[in-house]
Automatic annotation (TrEMBL):
Residues 26-149, 201-329 form the Haemin-degrading HemS/ChuX domain. GO terms for biological process: iron ion transport. InterPro entries: Heme_Transport_Util_sf, HemS/ChuX_dom. SUPFAM superfamilies: Heme iron utilization protein-like (SSF144064). This is Hemin transport protein HmuS.
Amino acid sequence: MLRARFQALSDAEPGLRIRTMAKRLGVAELELLCSGCGDLSARPLAVSPQALLRALPAINEVMAVTRNPWCVHECTGRYEGVRAERQVGLVTGDTIDLRIYFNHWHSIWAVSQPDRRSIQVFDRSGTAVHKIYATPQTHMPDFEALIERHLGPDRDEDLVLQPSPPTAPLDPPADPAGLRAGWLAMTETHQFFPLLQRFRVGRLPALQAVGPDLAQRIPTRYLEDALRRISLRGLGVACYVSNRGVVQIYTGALDNLSRSGEWINVLDARFNLHLDIDHVDSVWVVNKPTEDGWVTALEAYAEGGELIVQFLAARKPGKPELRAWRDLLVGLCDGPLAV
């Protein structure tokens, strides 16, 4: 039954991403992948997430893909600077830059399609958290050897999946004055998440509570205009897209920006971004103090309060934010930002 529905959808709308097809068919992405529909073939790998990550530098160039329901982030390069111990991992290559939370890396699969080979990582709900695609520059003997070395037994039993965890609550903070004081006391952006944990508040409710000089909502239509100006001016950005298992970061210019239907696309040689603008519910300019001066971010959120994508100015530690970036974001705001 699922195969027939899959084929009918493929015929009616060719080119749909597998995650979109799974949603339309009412199944988990991993369930569809393992169903044998179409030309998909998936085999489980019996390897720990940490061991997989440590093996990836040997296969040379690949494309790393991290996405959430509304944004796809693709970087082509090498897995370099790998640190994979315990529950948190890092990749700090020139192009592929990741922060990894291994507790959400539940199963790993080798996936074959007619024109693509990949290694894909799924959480307990059967949702992909990270994918690694071979490219023409991948060292395929090492790629194949990695898969063959860790092939697990075929799964005859049905997949056992769990519901996705609930999204973060949108309740306002119990102590907004304390949250604001803690925000103003930050000396680096990495102190932001501990701040949220300390005040037991979600990211979006925190923005709503601290005051417009620190977080200011702007019209959603400004997002596309801002990205076009960033591209035309050649401003370097740090673009973050995340899910529960991975934060993927690209640092560089947005050279080739285009719009296709509801999708805003960046189609550059080593970086692609696909942003579903129709599902952006709110856009914020976020202002944080650091030892290097104020750092300003452009952030887009979904209706449920989830962060879709975040843009900051590209900068090195110890260097202040580029003035042109600050001026662009300040120009999007109705009121002043803290300085």
